[in-house]
Amino acid sequence: MFITLEGSEGAGKSTLINLLKKYFSDKKFNFLFTREPGGTKEGQAIRSILLDKTIELDSYSETFLLLADRYEHIDKVIKPALKRNQNILSDRYIDSTFAYQGAGRGIDQKELQYLMDLLNYPKPDLTIYLDLPIEEGLNRVKKRGKSDRFEKEDLIFFERIRNFYLDLVKKNPERFLLIDASKSTDEVFNLAKDSITNKLYGK
Ligand code: T5A
């Protein structure tokens, strides 16, 4: 089973993943938790460039770095885990590129699809999208302290991304579960845990 987690800044993905990690490890489930960018050693080096506020990147350079990270991730982590029949949960995956580089930066979606197809990427079975009003997410990030290269973008950039995700969820109801991320961390965790468990047991 291949599950991905999406959402805009500060929606609570890391918080949710920590709770899911504990839950599934207590239940002795064979789950691999990973992320993009930075799911491999090579990807971590790419991630540090991508998040560095002092570095200016053209939107295409940013995209190619993200795709290099994804290629390494698919090749070294995702495909081998799927081959071993291991369940995977990835914090961000392909939808992030269509949302951030496509809707956010304005790169044509067809161009992105063409580039993405070159990766020959496994498709997720379930994608959980944590939805939160942009200002609320950015306030959470601000409170947490330390912002990155993406988090310095303006509200309109993130509104385009959120609207893109909402549209994607509407068009792909069989793959997506939308969770209202303004709920408490416990409520978000319970909704995500139940949908993953149902998917694992084919309900
Ligand atoms: N990116 C990535 C692209 O542009 N294209 C791509 O193709 C890919 C793969 C990754 C950046 O890269 C971009 C998108 C991203 O900008 P990242 O560090 O992984 O950078 O950043 P994010 O994925 O955005 O994650 P964040 O760390 O910003 O946010 P999270 O993980 O969603 O939020 P989290 O859990 O750290 O929570 C934020 C704060 O809110 C609190 C937490 O305690 C924390 O303080 N919180 C809640 N508060 C109230 N109620 C809840 N339910 C809460 N849940 C969490």
- Based on secondary structure, the structural category is alpha/beta
Q: What fraction strand?
A: 5-15%
Helix content: 55-70%
Described by the principal axes of the CA atoms, the overall outline is: globular
List how many beta strands DSSP finds: 5
> Given the structure, what is the number of helices?
8
Strand order of the largest sheet: 2-3-1-4-5
Rg result: 16 Å
Enumerate the distinct ligands.
P1-(5'-adenosyl)P5-(5'-thymidyl)pentaphosphate
Q: Give the integer mean of the pLDDT values.
A: 96
Low-confidence stretches: none
| Helix-strand topology string | EHEHHEHHEHHEH
Biggest beta sheet attributes = 5 strands, parallel
Task: Explain this structure.
The protein starts with a strand and ends with a helix. It is an alpha/beta fold and 203 residues long. The model has no long low-confidence stretch (mean pLDDT 96). The chain contains eight helices and five strands; from the N terminus they run E-H-E-H-H-E-H-H-E-H-H-E-H. The longest helix is centred in the middle third of the chain and has 25 residues, at 59-83. The chain has helices at residues 13-26, 41-51, 59-83, 94-104, 109-117, 134-144, 155-171, 185-200; strands at residues 2-7, 31-35, 87-91, 126-131, 176-180. The chain is globular and about 45 Å long. The protein has a five-stranded parallel sheet, sandwiched between helices.
